[in-house]
Amino acid sequence: MSAAGLRDCQAWRDEGLQLSTSSNEACKLYDALITQYVKWRNDETLGGFEGCISAMQAADPNFVMGHVISTGLELGATTSSTRLNEQLAFAVKRTVELANSQDITPRERLHVKAMELFSHGNFPKACEVWEDILVDHPTDLLALKFAHDGYFYMGAQIPMRDSVARVLPHWKPHMPLSSYLKGLYSFGLLETRFYDKAEKVAMEGLALTPDDAWSVHSIAHVYEMKAEVDKGLKFMQGREKDWQVSDILASHNYWHWALYFIEKGQYEAALQIYDSQVFRRVKVTGSMLDTVDASSMLYRLEMEGVCVKDRWREMLQVTQPHTDDHVTLFNDLHFLMVSLGNKGNGTSQRLLEGLQELAKEPGDNQQHQMAATLGVPMCKAMIEYDQGNYSRAVDLLYPLRYDMVGIGGSDAQRDVFNQLLIHAAMKSDSKRHHKLGRCLLVERDAARPNSPLTDRLMQRALALHD
Predict the structure, then answer these.
(1) Record keywords: NAD included (predicted)?
(2) DSSP string covering 365-398, please?
(3) Whole-model pTM above 0.70?
């Protein structure tokens, strides 16, 4: 989309989404930001995220929704915590103060409220407020996307699906960015196991917008969850030129591609993607999505017996500065993978103790509320596994199997913890755990038939001869 097609004050009013500013320039830049957010892309023709944010603030420094989107995007990236980052905490405070000093619309007021709740870690309440907005304004794409991300961080799979389903009838094909709702809906469908429908909806999205990286990503998940590995490899390769341009999601899509290779036991091919795409991008962006993917990939390879020692050392430089953030449990668990990969550096203990401390008085922070029952025991299980106490790791992880969804992320991302439990069960010195490991593999095979990874593990489990 060129700057010419961006919506000014009147265009937003015509759509029933009035913005409280008299600056057409600010309105257009707000549109440019939403466009890039939905496309997962820094679009240089629009000035990229950074360029748009500074130009928008220059056009109208007091534009409340301008502050909502720029601060909201930073919060949603989960790269820093308002507890530790004074600048971010100030940005939230400033937005609230601006809103209180102006006569803005009720919709905008709700946006400010949701952003503030999210900044305190109160993800459920923030999502409730975004849903309130969508009841009256189903075409408010910012509310829809922020809610989608909020649900993702909570592992709230059904709300993530239904949130999009509810607004779909209000979106007409001529509306800007309407085709991208297909990818959003598809992702909710696949996370609630409607794989065939998810694939169909995402393919419809790609027929309308071939470079919709989120729809591509949704289909990558479908093939991952169904263990249709060759189909996945062919699909990712065939469309690489289309989705590669979405710089914010490209690394994650490459990660999916690498997972197919790990599934097949082709570790060198997976490492090549790690080195040439995933880690290379992490170093440049420091993005959390890229960081957790890189961490998880090394952890999976290590469980498969691949030596990744030097790569752990490089990753620690990326994750260590975030040890005290504790924005999401999902991030924490991935930082822990890296610190454990770098034996004996004290970071693992510091991360665990910091989380235990926050769990004592979590306040409204939903992630800290779950730390005691979910985050801390999962961290401890990983530490026990690392120290060779496999039966202890099983005892900690097994009771949490059906609660782990609460750490957020996708089924594909969380699968690393299912694999950890199976490996721990097989390495345990308890014969009962060996039996449990086989049970878990049978269950895994029922959910994802013909998985080469499951077959490999089953061979190992059967060799235990109990």
Answers:
(1) no
(2) -HHHHHIIIIIHHHHHHHHHHHTT-HHHHHHHHG
(3) yes
